[in-house]
Structure formats: structure tokens, C-alpha cells
Write a structure and sequence with these properties.
The chain is an alpha+beta fold. It has 3 domains: 148 residues, no CATH class; 115 residues, no CATH class; 172 residues, no CATH class. Helices cover 45% and strands 12% of the residues. The chain contains 17 helices and 12 strands. The strands form 3 sheets. Strands 1-2-4-5-3 form a 5-stranded antiparallel beta sheet, with helices on both faces. Strands 6-7-9-10-8 form a 5-stranded antiparallel beta sheet, with helices on both faces. It has a two-stranded antiparallel sheet with strand order 11-12. Strand 6 and strand 7 form a beta hairpin. It starts with a helix and ends in a 51-residue tail after the last strand. 34% of the residues are buried.
Length: 527
């Protein structure tokens, strides 16, 4: 005890309590006052740290201490399940306090607190982390251990509608910023004990809770191990959103295309887990990451499986066409008008020439100016409040386009080209993939402006080669359009066109090879 006190007296600054990973290194003491003093130094200038030392028993012969962060706990649990029950329980045995004083810690831990969520920690670092996570700590004089009571009750916005993956038919729930609420939304849909929730903690400062959710007998072990390896491969001050994790563990950070899928929808995450994929849930983030992924996964919507296969196959085909249009139309227009006008029908050529007669800029400058103007409007619409943002996007586009045509800065055909390109980009279901196509659009414009139609084809070839070279945790990014033989071409049944559900009776490439069957239908004989 003297050695600890001497060492403690040498400490002058709070920083000396921590190691290089920001973990508290000072040990717990059996002296309650010393533990309180350590906590006061650690939580110095933390006005939201609520603490109380109080004696219990008829003769007040036993001292205890509780601490928690204000508004991060459920005060009702503190008052009814902890303080009230604690005082009543100990008072009921106070005549024999001397007999049980040697085991009072075990008595309170095992029966003195009226809540099931109670655990024991033996380090000050674990106790501090529990407080910062929304739990309450209880220290008892004479014991170098801490009782942690689950009292999490911080405010959150609850379950709301998804705003980035809207569907006509299907569940309307969206993930929230509370990790445990998000795991419950998935657990509610997959009621299987083999659905595992492996919890990690990342961030030296933020100590952010992260959960990996997967089905034990379906997930590929090599992919699961690789995900855990990458998550443990870095140290960072803080993780504030799942986007931080995505950028740190993706395969190719130079690519404009996302190699990890994010979703706001619990039904979409549950469906991915049933396919053998892994969901990464990050506390304080309403977006869940799905690993691994392919480009085909980004074109799928939850609604695809809730409505008839024929109309949803047509809709998915339209999405693919829209993605190609969003990247290719401006470059194709520049290549034809500047280098190959003879390939355009004569009446259309004359109409384009007439509309561009008074325009002082070449077609490539027209297109780039209008594309940048639409990008500016898109960004402004996002930052402004909902109704105003939508108005700015629509009215601003009309006004700027009309004004630019009347001022002879751009031709009407360019306004049409840019408008069709923008509308096509909105048809892509996943916003992160939309950003990728928006970027490569400028690459194809550059190739087309220099080499014409040959440059257009060369730019498309460069993009295609890049997509084929990508992988997501060992899975080819362009699967099933490449290497589909690996899964006996089965994944093509749910690609550009979606076949009826009874024909998609096997899991995709993400699942273990021996766990492919997911649907069995009895024949007329009941077999």
C-alpha cells in the first residue's frame, strides 16, 4: 500500500495515468479514498461525471462509491434497482454486519442489486471505460474490484424510415446510431442461435464499439479471419462513423468504386447475412457495412425480392442501362460531334449545328461547364434543408439551363445531354456507386475530347479493366460476370435479370461451398 501511495504522489498530470494506447495503467486499490482520488484526477474538469460516496448500515460502518456520466444512464435504474435496493438489502442484514463484512462484496454483487446486468472488473481502465460507455460503477471500501451495473440509457432518435434506400413495398425501418438497437433489428429477423455477434472495440480515444454479425455455419472462415485481421491491423484515435472503417479495410483505396457495401436497411443487412456475408455495425453510425461485395450487389434493392420477378427484372435492367448512360453519354456526344459527325443522321446533324451556331465554346467546354454546374446544384441541394434543397435542385437546374441557352453559352442539346446524365445517375440504387460513375464520367470525357470515338472506347476499356482487377476480400468484384464458373454459373440467375424466387434456391458465392442450399420445395408427392 505504501508503495502505491508513494507512486501515486509522484503523479502530477492526468496523462501519466495512461499508456501509449490511452489505457489507464494505475491499479485499483483496496483503499476506497485512494480509488476515488484516482477517478477524480481522471475525470478532472468533466462536469458531467456524477459521483457520490455514501455510508450504509445502522452504524454507517461501510463506505461505498458510485459514479456515472449524466444523461448517459437510465436514472430510474440507478434509483430503483441500485440505490434503493442496495440500502434496503444491506439494512436487512445490518444486525449481523460484522459476520458478513468479510464477504459484503460478494453479497452485494450476487444479490444486493435488483438488475440482471451486473459484472465485475478488476482494473481501473475497465471501470473508466464502463462509465464512458453509459454504465454505473460501484466501489466498496476494502475491495480492489469494481462492480459494473448496466444502466445505459442515452438519448437517441429511435427507429425511423430510411432516407437513402426508399422502397414502395417492404419494411420501413432503418438503422439508428445505437449499436445494440441495430443488432436487435437484425436479431429480430434472424432468430437463430448460430447468428453470432462478435464485439470489438476500436479507437484509442473514442473506444468505439463495433459488432461483427454473421451466421456461424454459413460464413466463409477465411473471409471472417481476414476481416478480423484488417480490423486489428491499425490503431487510430477515434472511429466516428462506419465510413472510417470502410476506408481503412477496403482492398484498393485508389479506386473510385466502393468495395464494401453500406446500407441503412435492417432487412437488406439480414438478407446479406443469410447469404453468408458479414455485417459490421459501428456504434454511433446508422450505416451498416456488408462484406464482401460485388458490383452486382450495388444494383440490387430490397424491393427486388418483395415484388414479382418480371417487373423487378425489367427495373434492374433499367438500372444497369442508367449506370452506363451516367458515365458514357457526355463523352459519346463529344466524340461524335467533334470527330465523327458523319455517323450522326443528317437531319440531326443540321439541328445540332444550328443550335451551336452562336455558341463560342467547343462542345467539350460546354459539357464540362454544365456538368460542373449540375454538380454544384446537387451539392447545394444536399446541404440545404429538405424542401428547400429539392426546390433549389429543380428550379436552379431549369433557370441555369435556360439562362445559359439564352446567353448562347451552351446549346440546348448539351442541356438535354447533361440532364439525361444526371437523371440516369439518380436511378442507381446505391449512392456510393453513383459517386464512382460520376467520377469516371470525366475520365471518359477527357479521352473522348482527345481521341474521339477511339478515345471513348479506350476510356471504357480502361474502366472495365480496372473493374475486373478489383477484389473484395478475395471475391472478384465483377462476379458473376467474370469467373462465374466457380459457382457453376448459378449467380447469373440473380444478376441483370432476377429469376423467380423458387429458381434461386442456392446461396451465392459468399457462402461456404457445402452450405449452398437455402430453399427446398416439395413436389406434388410431398417429397
Amino acid at each position: 500500500m505504501k508503495k502505491i501511495k508513494n507512486w501515486f504522489n509522484k503523479l502530477k498530470w492526468e496523462d501519466e495515468f495512461h499508456d501509449e494506447d490511452n489505457k489507464v495503467t494505475i491499479p485499483l486499490s483496496k483503499n476506497l479514498d485512494e480509488n476515488i482520488k484516482n477517478l477524480e484526477i481522471l475525470f478532472k474538469d468533466c462536469g458531467d461525471f456524477v459521483k457520490r460516496k455514501f455510508p450504509i448500515g445502522i452504524n454507517k460502518e461501510l463506505n461505498m462509491f458510485i459514479g456515472y456520466i449524466d444523461l448517459m444512464i437510465d436514472r430510474r435504474v440507478i434509483e430503483e434497482s441500485l440505490l434503493e435496493q442496495l440500502i434496503l438489502q444491506v439494512r436487512s442484514v445490518s444486525p449481523s454486519m460484522d459476520k458478513i463484512k468479510s464477504s459484503i462484496y460478494e453479497f452485494i454483487r450476487d444479490g444486493g442489486i435488483a438488475t440482471a446486468d451486473v459484472k465485475e472488473v478488476e482494473t481501473l481502465d475497465e471501470a473508466v471505460l464502463a462509465v464512458l460507455s453509459g454504465d454505473t460503477i460501484l466501489l466498496i471500501d476494502g475491495y480492489a474490484k469494481v462492480i459494473v451495473i448496466g444502466t445505459k440509457g442515452w438519448p437517441n432518435r429511435g427507429i425511423q424510415n430510411p432516407d437513402s434506400e426508399v422502397v414502395v413495398r417492404g419494411p420501413k425501418e432503418a438503422f439508428s446510431e445505437a449499436l445494440r438497437m441495430n443488432t436487435v433489428l437484425i436479431r429480430r429477423r434472424i432468430r437463430d442461435t448460430k447468428l453470432k455477434v462478435k464485439q470489438l472495440r476500436i479507437g484509442n480515444r473514442s473506444r468505439t464499439d463495433i459488432a461483427l454479425m454473421y451466421i456461424e455455419d454459413i460464413v466463409r472462415k477465411d473471409i471472417l479471419e481476414e476481416v478480423e485481421k484488417r480490423l486489428n491491423n491499425f490503431k487510430i484515435d477515434g472511429i466516428l462513423d462506419s465510413g472510417n472503417i470502410e476506408q481503412l479495410i477496403e482492398d484498393n483505396w485508389k479506386s473510385p468504386f466502393p468495395q464494401i457495401q453500406g446500407t441503412q436497411r435492417p432487412d437488406k443487412a439480414s438478407s446479406a447475412i443469410l447469404e453468408g456475408r458479414i455485417a459490421i455495425i459501428v456504434d454511433n453510425s446508422p450505416f451498416v457495412l456488408l462484406i464482401p461485395t460485388t458490383i452486382n450487389s450495388f444494383f440490387k434493392s430490397s424491393e427486388d425480392y418483395y415484388q414479382r420477378w418480371s417487373i423487378m427484372s425489367f427495373t434492374r435492367f433499367i438500372r444497369y442501362i442508367a449506370a452506363i448512360f451516367s458515365a458514357a453519354i457526355p463523352g459519346f456526344y463529344i466524340a461524335l460531334t467533334d470527330y465523327h459527325p458523319s455517323m450522326i443522321p443528317t437531319p440531326l446533324t443540321m439541328a445540332i449545328a444550328a443550335s451551336r451556331e452562336a455558341v463560342p465554346f467547343p462542345s467539350v467546354v460546354e459539357v464540362v461547364l454544365m456538368e460542373l454546374a449540375f454538380e454544384l446544384l446537387r451539392e447545394a441541394g444536399i446541404r440545404l434543408p429538405g424542401p428547400i434543397g429539392n426546390t433549389i435542385g429543380i428550379v436552379g437546374g431549369i433557370i441555369i439551363g435556360q439562362a445559359a441557352v439564352e446567353a448562347k453559352i451552351v446549346s440546348p442539346i448539351v442541356v438535354i445531354i447533361v440532364s439525361v446524365t444526371a437523371i440516369s445517375s439518380f436511378a442507381i440504387p446505391d449512392d456510393s456507386l453513383t459517386v464512382g460513375f460520376r467520377l469516371i464520367k470525366y475520365l471518359i470525357i477527357a479521352f473522348s475530347a482527345v481521341l474521339g470515338l477511339y478515345g471513348f472506347l479506350l476510356g471504357g476499356l480502361v474502366v472495365l479493366i480496372h473493374l475486373v482487377s478489383l477484389k473484395s476480400f478475395g471475391i472478384p468484384y465483377m462476379f458473376p460476370y467474370v469467373s462465374s464458373v466457380i459457382n457453376n454459373y448459378y449467380d447469373l440467375k440473380d444478376s441483370i435479370f432476377r429469376l423467380p424466387i423458387f429458381m434461386i434456391n442456392k446461396r451465392p458465392i459468399f457462402a461456404r461451398p457445402n452450405e449452398k442450399i437455402r430453399l427446398k420445395i416439395k413436389n406434388k408427392k410431398g417429397e
